[in-house]
Amino acid sequence: MMDFAAGKSDVLVSTTIIESGLDMPNVNTLIVTDSDRLGLTQLHQLRGRVGRGVNRAHACFLYPKDKRLTAQATKRLKTIFEYTELGAGFGIAMRDLEIRGAGNLLGVEQSGHIAAVGFDLYCRLLGRPLLNSRRAGPPPCR
Asked: Mind listing the domains of the chain with CATH numbers?
């Protein structure tokens, strides 16, 4: 990694650890293999590692040509292809929410005592101002 950052090596082979915020402005090409196995956030973060400088950048997301992609993998790859403009993170997050769903706040999959609190009380608690904060919380659930 140090040799690559210092320009002593032209190619860096890495795991997805590079999505954690490495800033190397001269990097202009990224090739991700088995990209169908990664989540949309990972794909977006990986793509953000290139094109941070003045050079035009390319991100190639590859998957085996004989592999039949799942519907979710197809949607993720299509999303990362469509959302390329600067500031696309919010649109990608919204599409990710559509693809994966919002989860199950009060369902049986949750642990703890949320069922004892109940949905109505939970919504009222969300609407209360936070302690030591000047901003109120989100509006009550409907």
From this structure: 2-102 (3.40.50.300), 105-142 (no CATH)
